[in-house]
Amino acid sequence: MPTYSEDDLLSLSGLQHLHFCERQWGLIHIEQQWEENRLTAEGRVLHERVHESGSESRPGVLVARGLYLQSLRMGLTGQADAVEFQEVGGAAPGAIQLPGRKGWWRPFPVEYKRGEPKADSCDEVQLCAQAICLEEMFGAAIGSGALFYGKRRRRTEVRFDAELRAHTEELARRMHQLFSAGATPAAVYMKKCDRCSLFDRCLPRATSKRTTVERYLARALRDEEAET
Ligand code: SF4
Measured in angstroms, how far is the CA atom of residue 33 from the centroid of ligand 1? Predict the structure, then answer.
């Protein structure tokens, strides 16, 4: 059942930012701040190359690159690096038919990442959101996809289990909540801030400290009022 209209759709790629830090998502998607560094530039070029490489087919597999994705239920839109349509033996549950092709096929999203697998599950969340979009668009059922990491030069399969799906949908809901509120969440300094591409714009130590001082001042004023 659609929850959002096409005008309400937010960027699917923002899920990875939101998963990393709500403030980072706000700085990028509410305030449109983006600090390109060597790593993000390499990632961007990798995605552009993948999208430009066009579609291909090999026995039992059709590959579509740069496919537009959307989910009105989650309120997300984006682009898949590659979707493999893998031929299945027959009309299996969740398999689909493709225009101009015989047989039954199952979509299998593949996302390309520079570097190595991350400590958190932000890449898995992004891939799972792509799968949920494909399921909604094609009426398919997708059990797994793959992440391809440039440094390892091989795929890691990702199962879209109930826990990953629930986490992905919760992040999508939270993203819409934050977008409706229209305010970038305040900084809270964490260890991972040191590897954040927006560290210099966010200034988490300074802004977190200011928040602490504001809280201290508010408490002091409350105590003052209580004594008078
Ligand atoms: S520096 Fe830290 S608080 Fe600021 S956006 Fe990055 S991760 Fe979030």
Answer: 13
